[in-house]
Amino acid sequence: MMSGGNVRVQLRVLMVVIGMMMMVVGRVTSQNYEDALTKSILFFEGQRSGRLPPSQRMTWRKDSALNDGTESNVDLVGGYYDAGDNVKFNFPMAFTTTLLAWSVLEFGQFMGSDLQYALDAIRWGTDYFLKATSIPGTVFAIVGDPYGDHSCWQRPEDMDTPRTSYAVTTTNPGSEVSAEMAAALAASSMVFQAYDAQYSLTLLNRAAMVFDFADMYRGSYNDVFGALVCPYYYCDGSGYADELIWAAAWLYKATNNQSYWDYVLKHINSLPQYIKRMDTDGMPVSGGSFAEFGWDSKHAGINILVSKLVIDRQLNPSPFVFNADKFACSILPESPTKSVTYSPGGLLFKPGSCNMQHVTALSFLLLVYSRYSNDAQRGIQCDNFVVPPSRLVQVAQSQVRLKLSNQWIYVLL
């Protein structure tokens, strides 16, 4: 079975990329970005767990998993299923929510009638994360039994597999999942400032609390849940330091609290320059951490996000802008420092399981960075030549076109 999270990662980032394409290049007659955006957001309604609202558009889905958390004496109803699975893996789910929030912050005003559905998708995640972090010193990380679930293909409405809830605690910490939840809550708090100020404050306060927990009680959730997450591609291969810095950066962006910025500066140089991950054959490969971004590795995302902050607030750009440029240059086909390959049909390829995760996530960052660089009226320095921000848009657009034109057979030949 293909990892459900891999499917969800592809679709959630595709939604973000499509939205950015609508903003930076406008509507193109040969590619219906608007329709694709609508369908990408609709996907999240199909993944909802819990009691469905009257606004549910996928009416063939019904209420499910209404007793989640009962054996732990906590309400864990809600959240999202892991694509074709009925387990709720909160680490990739939190990353989903962070990216959804980032997409709305960047281009929500261009989303038209889909904006409200995007807000609903974010809130469906954050409502659940508020429940999963409601007990001080405890963060729930998984709901459901991965082994039982993966051996029995069932509709969520009919499932009879165990709904065990698993938590990280002060004695068995999981900084990755906790910090990613903090990032999701902080990013989402910014989204809801204009729509529900009290809810926004609730999210922000909880984000700070969960971040403190993740930082104070450090440890990898691999050590706690390795037997549950590693067989399903959810082992953390890059450590938890990137999630802690990622969360601190979002909290600084949301609060302007100097202590979070100090945290980012203190720890950014402690990130490893190289990280190991698995290729499509399950073999370990090493790569520069500055070029990695996904539910597991936040390195490139940190640099892109912080590049905007340091440019706008006239802070020291090192090492963030330098590494953001390095990331962009690692993708551009003509760059002397390119670290990816392209198929004869033009599809970006990067070693690692489920290549379309890389295509969509990296395309999103290219689009975001092109906007930041354009606003700053600066080019991207690639070794001995400078690339205009518009070139990043062209490369990202080429990847989205391939995804939307159903040319997979031709692309991969």
TrEMBL record:
The keyword Transit peptide does not apply. Its EC number is 3.2.1.4. Keywords: Carbohydrate metabolism, Cellulose degradation, Glycosidase, Hydrolase, Membrane, Polysaccharide degradation, Transmembrane, Transmembrane helix. Residues 33-400 form the Glycoside hydrolase family domain. It comes from the Eukaryota. It is an enzyme of class 3 (hydrolase). SUPFAM superfamilies: Six-hairpin glycosidases (SSF48208). It catalyses: Endohydrolysis of (1->4)-beta-D-glucosidic linkages in cellulose, lichenin and cereal beta-D-glucans. The chain crosses the membrane at residues 12-30. Belongs to the glycosyl hydrolase 9 (cellulase E) family. This is cellulase. It comes from Vitis vinifera (Grape).
